Amino acid sequence: MTPDLSVTLGSLTLPNPLIAASGCFGYGVEYEQVVDLSSLGAVVSKGLFMKERQGHAPPRIVETPAGMINAIGLQGIGVHRFVKEKLPLLRQAGARTFVNVCGTTLDEYVEVSKVLSDAEGVAAIELNISCPNIKEGGIQFGCSLNGTYDVVHAVKQATHLPVIPKLTPNVTDVASFARAAEDAGADAVSLVNTFLAMAIDVETRRPKISNVMGGLSGPAIRPIAVRMVWECYQLVKIPIIGMGGITDARDAIEFMIAGATAVQIGTQNFVDPFVWSKVLDGMKDYLTRHNIAKLSEIVGTFDPTPPKPVHA
Amino acid sequence: MPPVDIDAPVIANARLSREYSVLSLAAPEVGRHTRPGQFVMVKPVGVTDPLLRRPFSVFEVLRNGAGDVTGVSILNKRAGRSTNKLYELEPGDLVSCLGPLGVPFSAVDPPTEGWMVAGGVGLAPFATLAESLAAARTPATLFYGARTAGELFYLDFFEKLGVKLVLSTEDGGRGVKGRVTAPLEAALKALAAETPTKAAGAMVYACGPEPMLEAVAKLAARYNQPSQVSVERVMGCGLGGCYSCVVPVKHGDEHANLVRSCISGPVFDGAELVWE
Fold first, then answer.
1. How many structural domains does chain A have?
2. CATH of domain B4-101
3. What integer is the mean pLDDT of A280-294?
4. How many helices (H) and strands (E) does chain A have?
């Protein structure tokens, strides 16, 4: 029997829980040559403002132990060009498209969301209130409980689409932000965005990326992200989309056991653009081994009983 | 032809010096579809630190005695942890090899000659280009600069293809002492004297350090010759996903845009790149 990998995020049903993370998959269409986009649970676009943005000067990334720091600076084509140039191609490819919405003001989040509500082929809005790399907007909402509530509430009033705020880990208690989002009517939350980080070239004593600081992603952050998903799962009832350094099926399943209904893969897609089918195969194998018919049964099944002592 | 990803066994890893090696990979599916100037993203299988792959121009498309494509090679220069690991690989080791990727060099049309300008490890894309120029019977010259005579590699390879060599070394050990742009400028000046019209006489191809690329593109423009340069930027994915490898490009009177060198390059029209 083929295990059922489908998952439900509020009103959305996805054929499987694997979602391509924003900023790690271009506009999706770039990957059509190597991945059948309809085979993914969903694809999240790069972050979009009303207008085009050039982003930061290169170098924009640097590798660090088991991870990388990026400060791309949300280079993007703006929501109108996205709707006109990319969305039809994503529709044609059968992708379920989540659009990552950015704003420098509350009004901009609302305006971008309205444009997307009128477009054909958007499955959900992921609210980017957590990008660590730009001064104006985004993080100022994501680092304040009131700001998080206000932006989610305002966008919910403006669109019929499911609204999924993406939370930053750069706060003391991420679960309280998940709660604020839930109170404001969010349909789900996704977490975590990257960890604010920096790397120094000790020979020159200068930064390794032009923006000085950037967001840390990759396997290095996974244990912290798993902990944060578990904390949020205990506090909110809305579905959680978990992410942070997932490289294979075991990593993805770890997030689901901690409470994630779906998961996003970002950095690993850079390392291996063929990661998706490998993770799906690994999930099926796991379910077969554990005699589980439906993947969603494992969500939040973490058992905090202390492990038995391990003898070397 | 979409890129493929192969866990390719190392066929050979010929150390040319303490810094350079030619790493040959059994990746026939990549080799068969590679055009001159395209690249691959590689890292040793099983290595998670460094995490990301590295971009390399395809150096040679490898063939067996019967002429069948058996793989590709890359010209590796030790510059950090990844390239050190690649330098140390032995036959039989596995390398993840994703490709071919990127925009290739375009043919010499209408210019009547192909001039390749290589600085150091920037020789990499010119072995395949020289073969394709030779196949098209386009007269070709390689302007090749390195630090020392011992770092001028594969000269026989190019000579066998009938490529004229113009060499330079920083220490004067072989060829012209100094930078490769000096003999290039002399040749451009001579070409301009021969063909005083604006008609292009040579397509100038360049790969090497960015200051060299800038100098070559500007020289070509000054002497009214077209140029194509292969840039190298820190690259995360090679497929257009991460927006790390951007370079400023300007078409006509438009303002410059940051474009991804992995999918809009690595080969660009030298006249369209904006130098910072």
1. 1
2. 2.40.30.10
3. 97
4. 10, 16
**Domain limits, CATH 3.40.50.80, in chain B:** 113-269
CB A116 within 8 A of CB A125: yes
Burial of A262 (0-12, 13-18, 19+ CB in 10 A): buried
Alpha helices in chain B (DSSP H): 28-33, 81-88, 126-135, 155-160, 181-194, 210-222
Is residue A1 situated within a structural domain?
A: no
To the query of whether residue A131 is one of the catalytic residues in this protein, the response is yes
Predicted confidence band at B176 (pLDDT cuts at 50, 70, 90)?
very high
The alpha-carbon radius of gyration of chain B (Å, integer) is 18
* CATH architecture of structural domain B113-269: 3-Layer(aba) Sandwich (3.40)
Encoded tokens for A182: 């839930």
Q: What is the DSSP secondary-structure string of A15-79?
A: SSSEEEPTTSSTTSGGGTTTS-GGGSSEEEPPPB-SS-B--PPSP-EEEETTEEEE-----B-HH
Confidence at residue A312, expressed as pLDDT on a 0 to 100 scale: 66
Supply the range of the domain harboring residue A224. Answer: 7-298
Contact in structure between B62 and B73 (CB atoms under 8 Å): yes
Residue A134's pLDDT is 66
Contact yes or no for A219 and B48 at CB 8 A: yes
Residues B111-137: tens digit of each pLDDT: 789 999 999 999 999 999 999 999 999
Interface of B with A (CB under 8 A): 2-3, 5, 43, 48-53, 96, 98, 233-234, 236-237, 239-247, 257-258, 263
Neighbour tally for A307: CB within 10 Å: 6
Q: Which stretch of DSSP H or E encloses residue A255?
A: helix A249-258
Q: Is the pLDDT of residue A148 over 80?
A: yes
Q: Is residue A305 part of a domain?
A: no
pLDDT average, residue stretch A117-128: 97
Query: Residue A309: inside a domain, yes or no?
Result: no
Q: Global pTM?
A: 0.95
Domain with CATH 2.40.30.10 in chain B: 4-101
Is the CB of B50 less than 8 angstroms away from the CB of A63? yes
> Rounded CA gap, B238 and B247, in Å?
14
CATH number at residue A187: 3.20.20.70
Whether B198 shows a pLDDT value over 70: the answer reads no
Q: Which two tokens stand for residue B195?
A: 């063909």
Residue of A nearest to B247 (CA): A58
Whether residue A307 is contained in a domain is answered as no
